Amino acid sequence: MTKLITIDPVTRIEGHSRITIRLDEHGEVDIARLHITQFRGFEKFVEGRPFQEMPSLTARTCGICPISHLLASAKACDEIMAVRIPESAAMLRRLINYAQIIQSHALSFFHLSSPDLLLGMDSDPALRHILGVAAKFPELAKDGIWLRKFGQQIIELTSGKRIHPSWIVPGGVNQALSPEARDAIVVQLSQALAIARKTLDWFKPVISRFQDEIDSFANFPSLFMALVSPDGTIEHYDGSIRIVDAQRRIVADQIAACDYADTIGEAVEADSYLKSPYFKLLGYPQGIYRVGPLARLNVCERLGTPLAESELGQFRALQPDGAVLSSFHYHCARLIEILHALERVGELLAAPEILGMPVRAIANPNKREGIGVSEAPRGTLIHHYRIDDNGLISWANLIIATGHNNLAMNRGITQVAKRFVKAAKISEGALNRVEAVIRCFDPCLSCSTHALGQMMLRIELVDPAGEMLDCCER
Amino acid sequence: MNKIRIATVWLDGCSGCHMSFLDMDERLLAIADQIDLVYSPLVDAKVFPENVDLTFVEGAVSNDDDLHKLKIVRSRTRLLAALGDCAVTSNVPGMRNYFSRDEILRRAYLENASFNQSIPSEVIPRLLPKSKPIHEIVKVDLFVPGCPPHAESIFTALAALLEGRLPDPGSTLRFG
Ligand code: SF4
Fold first, then answer.
1. pTM score, two decimals?
2. Nearest by CB: A268 against B9, B65, B116
3. Which residues fall within 8 angstroms of residue A34, CB to CB, at 6 or more apart?
4. What residue ranges do the domains of chain B occupy?
5. CA distance A43 to A59
6. What CATH number was assigned to the domain covering residues B4-93+130-173?
7. Which of A247, A265, A300, A423 has the fewest other C-beta atoms within 10 Å?
8. Domains, in order of start, for chain A
9. A266 to B114: CB separation less than 8 angstroms, yes or no
10. What confidence category does residue A1 fall into, taking pLDDT thresholds of 50, 70 and 90?
């Protein structure tokens, strides 16, 4: 007889999901599974829409990283129009992308994960949230809220709207940046940098307190995938795909966006609406790889901005013999990326061309197909469209950043459940850790395909054929 | 003073409405001592509690789970607000209503997959034939439109409710 534990919903993550943990006849954890319960259907319902609508439409897959979808989508449309966008437009797209990385990473670290890190994995669940942090550590909560706001303000000052702006369009952007908006951002930069550095200085020394979590939070060899520039510098807007192994040896490099389908396959699993991409050369499920901040830092050779570069040196020292493997270190990688993004925002705003014109290339469709790739906060995002004679979408495929991590998240929750869930006593802290490993990946599940249940923690007793024998709730 | 018990619920939406809620920024801290966030994707409660004063619902009703949750939420909430266009009109999720459930699932899991092409059906909730706005399922007390509603609109609504008035969303309305 086996037992099944269900965590429903998984909380403090950006999406709808539940977790089941199956125990074997000895009461040991056999396997844990993450089930993504939301399905949106974008790939079909965009059919018949004018391709120019795609950025605004697909942005609605996700309110946390709409800028990523706007960018990948607009890049696919640029290709359909066969245009090279004006230099100032490319700089403005980069600027808004960094702004989104700042706000999204701040949300993940401060609003969603800091309760575990500051109040403790075993702390009272009723207080384990950002307002709970605000009550005990007001300074840190204020910093987090301020930093997220700063990212959102850059987006608003640049594009006119914080969430789902219609400013990024096929061919570029629809309005130049005003000197007033630039100055309003620049005056706040030093405070933002100070918060980013202060947070890193606080977090780095406390990492060692989480040794059990470091050891078991999806800590295993895997491939890592991210975009890099031709010389191997980290890239978030352009560049091409590079994959490295657990020793940081390059296994695939300079793969152009248009060749993604030769490199990555997508597998379906019966118990989740989220597909599992895999590296085709190794097949499914051996071709497991990770994306996002941890992957980007493992994949790139350098960050190319002074403050972040010196942090990268310390980050590499966490695992000197190869790639940093523990997914717990996504948190640290995220903070380093905030610092990097802030430095890049400073550079971009210092260049006079940021205010330049024109910012949009106009053209009719000149190609039947377009593929756009960019690095979303959570990893590589791919939009692929085909159009008909009238410029209407006839087919679309989206590979969402979080999807790439599906295999790794599943292996991660199994690893952490084996370590912390002991059948005799399933503590609240153990279950929170199973969720916390998911929070490391910062999955954006609204993107992918969430669950508020009247069911919470349910323990179901099922026989090997899956028939439920008994069920208790707490 | 008794704190007002507030919940936020996320059905089939993109979380943009929840992000706009967070876009109240420091004002969130200012009202933190007047409210108890008893249920939300931002907190750890797993069960929707009884006696909630106000619930904001984001998103349309698209699957079995959404339907079931919404009914529970309604039965345990005094005032229910539809937050954002997806909850108000079904908006983007409703765009799939032009296609059959089978067509949209086939695209994602048969045509756009390269291994184990099949339609997922275990453990996860079943899609409803059509995606619906929440007022088609339960009584809604307040509509806050926008995609997403401006943080200002959410704050205005919340501030009025904290004072015990029903807000006039027309004053801060925006389209899109
Ligand atoms: S109304 Fe707009 S912002 Fe809100 S959930 Fe729907 S698509 Fe997202």
1. 0.90
2. B116
3. A10, A17, A18, A19, A272, A406, A409, A410, A413, A438
4. 4-93+130-173
5. 13
6. 3.40.50.700
7. A247
8. 42-411 (1.10.645.10)
9. yes
10. low
